From TrEMBL, chains A, B:
Keywords: Cytoplasm, DNA-binding, Endonuclease, Hydrolase, Nuclease. One of its GO terms (cellular component) is cytoplasm. It is found in: Cytoplasm. One of its GO terms (molecular function) is DNA binding. It comes from Deinococcus yavapaiensis KR-236. Pfam families: NucS_C, NucS_N. It is an enzyme of class 3 (hydrolase). The gene is nucS. This is Endonuclease NucS. Residues 41-133 form the Endonuclease NucS N-terminal PH-like domain.
Length: 263, 263
DNA sequence: TGATAGATTTCGAAC
DNA sequence: GTTCGAAGTCTATCA
């Protein structure tokens, strides 16, 4: 790595390069040099304005933001508040910087959908190139985990339930759990990892209708399995002759143990 | 601002404070001193591991991440790829740092839902406190804009249409546009800024049913207005005696002009 | 490539 | 606080 104007002496290891108050030319060179480099995350803290054109149009007035370009070409511009960036681009086909009218401009574009984010830098306070490491990540408690757990222990939903299939496709969309109750009736189970609203009821109703259409001679039950339901959703269930069963998303011991470990 | 161990000389303006390779004690002091300060965004680049317990459970193995805490208490931990952080917490009730077994630990928690994110710092490369500025932001092309435009020019949907109401509440949810056609029939219009799927059809059907219930003696039409529909959604519309009208989300001239301005 | 559904969705508005 | 729906949602999966 050759040192640049404004580069600091401790640019080793994770911190590949740091520029303090770079000129537009050196910022553009810095950006073009590091963007999309393997495992390098580029960050610029600057007064800048941001324009977006694509599925919608937006303008962020000149203000101080943190601009982040990751090695996969994703771009995000963070303001003072919120997890969500002010502007972003999850995938880009091209990210490049240039100097225009004495200012460094970063343009990130993608086709399909055709979109552009343009960042015009005014005062640049800091530019960093960081070399991050990928590390293992595990998540549990998704709907998929819940489905696997209930497929192993269907009695949690109802005594005598036998699972016939998971992710059974009926027309469009898939039935989370397709089962047989103790009386030989078909059971369509729709799972929700969190409180269920009427969309969940609608989904369940669609699947039940699809099964009834395919198997007209059999009785078909519909069960919404979730940790809780909203009141209107429960009414909708009752109205349509569907059922609700309370199931907790995570094994009860797990979160408690985790909470204990954290405090 | 009093200078800390490792603080750099150019800590003025936007860059409130910068620490290079701080000790666990100084990092904890730094975090507790800056977190939730007005307009201050705190960032730490470090080898760390992250645990999350709440709606789900997750663990990120020790690796190099960018940890960001904004002044509203939101937390996000970014890895090398993607706009989405590895871990995050959109709202927190408490963010605090302390030293545990010789390591700085950051804990961000919230009640309702009860959630905790714990970051254990190993090697800390950089810690920044940045003072960001809020600036104006405008977005156009949202469904709300579309609704306003169509309320002004309902003939775009159909000749002779008269808008009676917008966001009319019927039971749960609101009718985007409630209108009267040239023959005096009531018209429920559901808008979508992007391609509409069967959820949009379901929404429309619910609203139409609600209006028919409230006004049993009147004929009620249902129109889905969107730039396009999926094939299954179109079938569902036909099946339920509902209609589709193609409306483009943005005025055709706008995006083209914007694109031109950007390149 | 298109369609569907999940997501620790986030975010904001209405009640 | 609850409920609901939009979002520039994003992302993975499957036909």
């Amino acid at each position: 790595m050759k040192p640049r104007r404004g580069a600091l002496p401790y640019c080793v290891g994770v911190l590949r390069e740091q520029l303090s108050s770079p000129t537009p030319v050196s910022l553009a060179a810095f950006l073009n040099g590091h963007v999309r480099s393997c495992d390098v995350l580029v960050q610029v803290v600057a007064e800048c304005e941001v324009e977006y054109a694509g599925r919608a149009l937006s303008t962020a007035d000149a203000g101080c933001y943190v601009v982040m370009v990751k090695c996969d070409g994703s771009l995000q511009i963070h303001g003072a508040r919120g997890v969500k960036p002010v502007n972003w681009q999850p995938r880009t086909d091209d990210v490049s910087a240039f100097v225009e009218e004495g200012r460094c401009v970063l343009v990130a574009s993608r086709r399909s959908p055709e979109e552009v984010v343009k960042v015009t830098f005014h005062d640049v306070h800091l530019a960093l190139a960081l070399e991050l490491e990928e590390a293992g990540f595990t998540l549990s408690g998704s709907e998929k985990d819940m489905q696997e757990a209930l497929a192993r222990s269907p009695h949690v939903i109802e005594q005598g339930l036998t699972v016939l299939d998971r992710e059974l496709l009926v027309g469009v969309g898939g039935i989370d759990l397709y089962a047989l109750d103790r009386d030989g009736r078909l059971v369509v189970v729709e799972l929700k990892r969190a409180r269920a609203g009427h969309e969940a009821v609608h989904q369940l109703a669609r699947y039940v209708a699809a099964v009834r259409l395919q198997v007209p001679h059999r009785e078909v039950r519909g069960i919404l399995a979730a940790p809780s339901v909203t009141a209107p959703a429960r009414e909708a269930l009752t109205r349509q002759g569907l059922e609700f069963v309370e199931v907790t998303a995570l094994a009860k011991s797990e979160p408690a143990a985790m909470q204990g470990a954290l405090f």
